[in-house]
Amino acid sequence: MLGERVIGSQTSGSFVLAVFDDWDTLHAVLLELESDKAARLVALLHARKDVPPKPSASSLLKHMTELRFERSRQHISCTMGLLAEALATRLTGGARTLADALRDWLGSNQAKQLERHLERGHLVLCVELRTSDDFSVVCGRLVQASPHMVELCNINFGLRCRA
To answer: What CA–CA distance (Å, rounded) separates 135 from 127?
Structure first.
């Protein structure tokens, strides 16, 4: 699925979210994107226990934080950075699930769908597009590698959560 949702009147950038089944596929995509200048890796979200060993993992996986939403079935691990900080702010602001925290950015249905992907053990990659011209290149790569969903959104990290 490829969708688009613009959030708020001021956004900090265009982001692409892609969902993966396994670490090997994700790792291959990370290697491609880390060597490319079209996108900047922002975050990885997952609820899995089988994290690959650090030497083989991307630099994106080295610093993770755990988010514990009251009504979520599993704890969500997120790469430390702006997304993790924004989600933590929404958590302390009353978001009871990851979907609650994401719904302003993705819309209610897409946020719930993303949360279900994490509950099923899927891996969610968040990539920032450097320019609007990079959209087709980055999304093309992600759509080929992700069997589930690739979602385009504009995220304003300062936007408050409607809890």
So the answer is: 11
Q: Which distant-in-sequence residues (6+ apart) come within 8 Å of 62 by Cβ?
A: 54
Report the range of poorest mean pLDDT among 10-14, 18-22, 84-88.
10-14
Chain segment 39-76, per-residue pLDDT in tens: 777 789 999 888 876 545 566 777 888 999 988 778 89
User: Which residue ranges make up each domain of the chain?
Assistant: 2-154
Residue 116: partners with Cβ closer than 8 Å, 6 or more residues away: none
- Which candidate, 45, 28, 49, 60, places its Cα nearest to that of 117? 45
Tell me, what's the pLDDT at 148? 81
Q: Which helix (H) or strand (E) holds 31?
A: helix 23-34
152 residue type, one letter: L
Nearest CA to 118 among 95, 140, 143, 149?
149
Residues sharing a CB contact under 8 Å with residue 11, sequence separation 6 or more, in sequence order: 154, 155, 156
Q: At what angle do helices 98-106 and 108-119 cross, to 10 degrees?
A: 140
What are 15's two structure tokens?
Answer: 């982001």
